[in-house]
Specification:
Shape: elongated
Helix content: 25-40%
Number of helices: 7
Number of strands: 13
Strand content: 25-35%
Order of helices and strands: HHEEEEEEEEEEHEHEEHHH
Structural class: alpha+beta
Largest sheet: 9 strands, mixed
Length: 245
């Protein structure tokens, strides 16, 4: 009796079974590949817009002066709207962003020791007037925002508080004017000096040369994790190639 057809059928069945087994292995490796990719995405978070803009909710229990106006007591959202060179545009909104209260020009201000909390500094208040907001420091940052006051008000604040106040000739009406309006600073003696002379934009030389503390920053590097994930993915790719070859 001729059994050749049966052998051909068994051979085809065996080949089909091996192909199915290879497909299952490839599918399992693909799922492992996908799982590792998702793990990398989960463990390496992107920098949030909140951190980039330094979005902060602040509450004032009394009226506060900012460049160009006085804000009533209440809760506000403050953030960096745009940055260019050494100038920053800061905006102050209602907490739900429904209302824009102020658009303010600021310049970097360096502090030696960052803190874990938001810090708002004020110029000493002249008699019977609201405190004037001088600078804003975001948690963990050594660089903050020093607010620039219109010339006439800067002269008054410098004289009353005995501090040097950054200033500009006129209050800009547009973002483009914020970028080009000449800046300077006014001393308590009503002397005009350059911003570099008045505001510590760079760390002192001694501080810059000092060794870094042996602690990890908030945004510690994820490079080792990414490298390990890359090795795992490479191994998976080699395995797939061996199966399908």
């Amino acid at each position: 009796m001729d059994v050749t057809p049966r052998k051909d059928k068994d051979s085809r069945g065996s080949a089909f079974a091996h192909a199915r087994e290879d497909e299952m292995k490839v599918a399992k490796i693909f799922l492992a590949f996908l799982a590792v990719s998702l793990l990398v995405v989960a463990l390496v978070p992107a920098t949030s817009a909140k951190e980039l803009n330094r979005t902060t909710i602040v509450s004032f229990n009394q009226p506060i002066e900012v460049p160009g106006q006085v804000l009533p007591a209440g809760k506000y959202l403050i953030e960096i709207f745009e940055t260019f060179s050494y100038r920053h545009i800061v905006r102050i909104y209602s907490p739900d962003r429904d209302k824009l209260f102020a658009t303010i020009l600021a310049i970097p201000n360096y502090r030696l020791t960052p803190t874990e909390d938001t810090v708002m500094t004020f110029a000493e208040r002249p008699a019977n007037s609201p405190e004037a907001l001088k600078a804003w420091f975001y948690p963990g940052n050594q660089y903050g925002e020093e607010f620039v006051y219109p010339k006439a008000r800067a002269v008054e604040l410098a004289e009353a508080t005995h501090e040097t106040i950054p200033t500009m000739e006129k209050e800009p009406a547009t973002v483009e004017e914020f970028k080009t309006e000449p800046l300077e600073a006014v001393t308590p003696e009503n002397k005009e000096v350059t911003i570099a002379e008045a505001i510590p934009m760079q760390p002192p030389a001694v501080q810059a040369a000092a060794p870094e503390p042996a602690t990890l920053p908030k945004t510690a590097s994820h490079v080792p994790l990414i490298a390990l994930s890359g090795v795992v993915l490479l191994v998976l790719a080699v395995a797939v190639r061996r199966i399908v070859s």
